Amino acid sequence: MAEILRTDARTALHERPGAEQSESRTLGANVVEDGRYMAPPTDEDGKQWVRTSVLIKGEPRDLYGLWHNVEDAPLWQEQIASVTRTGEKTSHWTMQSATGTLEWDSEIMSDEPGHRITWRSIGGDSENAGEVVFEAAPGGRGTYVTVLQEFRMGKLASTFETLTGRNPKQAVIENLRHFKALAETGEIPRTHGQPHGPRGAAGTVKSAAYAENVAQPPGLERMAS
Amino acid sequence: MKAVCWMGKSKIETLKVPDPVILNPHDAILRVTRTAICGSDLHLFDGFIPTMEQGDILGHEFMGIVEDVGRDVKNLKPGDRVVVPFTIACGQCEFCHKGLWSACDNTNPNAHLMETAYGYSGSGLFGYSHMMGGYAGGQAQYVRVPFANIGPLKIESYLPDEKVLFLTDIFPTGYMAAENAQIAEGDTVAVWGCGPVGQFAIASAFMLGAGRVIAVDRIPERLELARSLGAITVDYTEQDVSVLQAMRDLTGGMGPDSCIDAVGLEAHSNQLQGVYDKVKTMLMLETDRPIVLRQAIQAVRKGGTLSVPGVYGGLLDKVPFGAAFGKGITMKMGQTHMHKYMKPLLERIEKGQIDPSYIISHRITLEEAPHMYEVWRDKKEKVTKIVIDPWAEKAA
Fold it and tell me: What pLDDT score does B273 carry?
């Protein structure tokens, strides 16, 4: 977990006007360690991993704050019905899908304000662990937000996959996309609820195949209503 | 309300559907006053664009009067007259900041479908398949406009709808094609395809200083419109006409400084399994389409520029990349960065530099739209551009 700075690096290149200044830290979600690209962990022993990353126009500190406020997670995470704080580091999560409810408790393992959060489930219908890292993008272009999520495939995974047309890996990717949209624009793009002609059987099947039957998170609209 | 709905391949119907409502804080609802059928809509009609669903409302070219706005739309109010860009942009992401509006990161709810095909997703579009967002289109009496704080252009001067309607897509698309062609004063520019986008590419090429424009097509009314703008026309179906020979003959043997492919190979994507084979089949059937790209690469002068506003969707066979490298050409392409062009082009219309309504051949009602899709597809009735008044009961 040590922070690695490449201050002793020997280089023939003495000018890098646009290059990033600090080196990244050695964490599980890290994409770069000591100048080397690190591939995401591979699935094994019943564990599945997904790592995904976005550039968000914003400061690491503010984005960390938005993520850290877990009770707002239903605004941007798919099918999360509610999150209740149960302690300083613990919260209770309820996920509502078309035909079922999943509940679990979650605990924050480590918390570096403005930079990093890790968590894991501590009982319930889901076995998962995750990490999110916020770091300034090179060139002052915003913040790279990288999420690493680990699952044990159980009830959660099968329910997700069969009922929602989203597997849990894709759900992590979509949730980070929603987080970005909410942080950058104040809303999450929405098409559910717009008019259309009769869909027929084929249209309904297609819609499910494109995962359009997954409820689009409300964004800040929920706050207004 | 009444809306033109895609009900399957070659099956378009005007149906009664619910009115749109505000769904997000930056939404607006418009009462549509004019909308148009785009050449690219014909490919939806023909069933070439994957991820259409029965019941989808068509149309990405429209304008109207603001009826209602979401709580975070501060720049528009009910009663404002606006033209809406066909691409939807959030205005806040890295791409919008760079002026690459059609690459917006935040407006396609189905981005994962495009990511599968292209690596990354572009912005959402109105009425143009679910991989492009699945947004309801504007060939209807009302339409919901997301990110209305960013896209719609207010028309405050007195200009009839028909003169400003084409700011919604085809005029900016033709203009960006000419800008991408990197035209220097006096250059010779060749334009393949004299449909609406080709027309505006020709007009824009002259606006940007072209000394000579060569226009290639086969349809007499289109070639006539091109000549009316001052272009020299080449009808490639005439006996003994070789397009490549014509390009040499018209440029002292040097080739055009810039070539614009306003034909494209629309309607293809490697989105779904097996589409590669479909594309290959199409290449053999629709022979004129890949030929344009190949011809343009072959025709352009050494160190020249190839600009591609024509839509390509999937994989192409036998593109002469060696010729492109050997001559050191520049290629520029892509969906139009609408938001960058609408205002300056409105100013050109207001100053009387161009009247985009010259391409309109047909004015129709919503009820007549399904039939006119067929007429245009079959290249009958000398269609150059069809405009719909969604509130008209009978054709004007």
Answer: 31
Distance CA B348, CA B333 (A): 24
CATH superfamily ID and name for A46-188:
START domain (3.30.530.20)
Structure tokens at B169: 């897509």
Q: In Å, what is the CA distance from B261 to each residue of A121, B37, B348?
A: 55, 21, 24
Mutate to test the interface with A, among B9, B13, B17, B23 (most CBs of A within 10 A): B23
Is A212 at the interface with chain B, CB within 8 A?
yes
Number of helices (H), then strands (E), in chain A: 6, 9
How sure is the predictor about A160, in pLDDT bands with cuts at 50, 70 and 90? low
Task: Calculate how close chain A gets to B2, using CA atoms only, in Å.
Answer: 10
Give me the residues of B, 103-162, that contact A with CB < 8 A: 105-113, 124, 130-131, 133-136, 140, 144, 146-147
Domain ranges of chain B: 2-169+336-388, 170-333
| Higher pLDDT, residue B59 or B46 | B59
Q: Which residues of A touch B3 (CB under 8 A)?
A: 195, 197
What pLDDT, on a 0 to 100 scale, did the predictor assign at position A27? 46
Instruction: Name the pLDDT band for A28 (thresholds 50, 70, 90).
Output: low
Which residues 98-137 on chain A approach chain B with CB closer than 8 angstroms?
none
Look up the ipTM and state it: 0.90
Residue whose C-alpha is closest to residue A183's, from A156, A145, A146, A149: A145
Percent of chain B with pLDDT over 90: 82
Q: What is the reported pLDDT for B43? A: 85
Close Cβ partners of B325 (under 8 Å, ≥ 6 residues apart): none
Domain B170-333, CATH 3.40.50.720 — does that match?
yes
CA dihedral B90, B96, B100, B103 (to 10 degrees): -40
| Residues B152, B290: Cα–Cα separation, whole Å | 35
Class of domain B2-169+336-388: alpha beta
Q: How far apart are CA B386 and CA B376, in angstroms?
A: 9
pLDDT digits (tens, 9 = 90+) for B222-265: 999 999 999 999 998 888 999 999 999 999 999 999 999 998 76
